[in-house]
Amino acid sequence: QQQVKQSPQSLIVQKGGISIINCAYENTAFDYFPWYQQFPGKGPALLIAIRPDVSEKKEGRFTISFNKSAKQFSLHIMDSQPGDSATYFCAASDYYGGATNKLIFGTGTLLAVQP
Amino acid sequence: EPEVTQTPSHQVTQMGQEVILRCVPISNHLYFYWYRQILGQKVEFLVSFYNNEISEKSEIFDDQFSVERPDGSNFTLKIRSTKLEDSAMYFCASSEALGRGLEQYFGPGTRLTVT
Question: What is the DSSP letter of B15?
Answer without folding.
Answer: T
